[in-house]
Amino acid sequence: MQTSAAPNPISIERSIELLERTPSVLRSLLQDLPAHWTTATEGPGTWSPYDVVGHLVHAERVAWIARAELILSDREDKTFPPLDRFAQFEESKGKTMHQLLDDFDAHRSANLNALRQLPSGEALQRTGVHPQFGNVTLAQLLATWTVHDLDHINQIVRVLAKQYGEAVGPWKANLRILR
Q1: What is the per-residue pLDDT across 54-65, written as a single tens digit (0 to 9) for each?
Q2: b vs e for 25-58, b when ≥16 Cβ sit within 10 Å of the residue's Cβ?
Q3: What is the domain-level CATH number for residue 66?
Q4: For the chain, which has fewer Cβ within 10 Å, the N-terminal or C-terminal residue?
């Protein structure tokens, strides 16, 4: 068993290994699940799995590749437009979970095709300007995109688990996801 490893170098190929799996993970977990699961939250001001998928669709549509292309462009001003982290509340209205999953899958597929066309190597050290964090590299953007997926998959699973938070009784002490 491996106890520690050297940090993984950031690369387009390594990120794609995870990014290409997210649509099928979400579809397997959420498609055809009744609304009492997909609209549940952790309480006021928190997001349901439906909200999270809507957020992922929005970010996929407007953020990742657009920001990568801006970093790689010859433009003088490489400041990213702000991302509306709550746009899904309007954009997802009237859509089913199935439609959101289809939208996410389509945008992710197109973005992975675009990502495969981007230069790598030294290009990963080129920078853009995040409105909150300042200068960021393409490598950091790529790593963030990958971890963003994992963070939201974790969020969805946590929300689902918490629906049975009290029902597990004393086992709650052994279930980290419920703490």
Answers
A1: 999 999 999 999
A2: ebbebbeeeeeebbeeeeeeeebbbbbbbbbbbb
A3: 1.20.120.450
A4: N
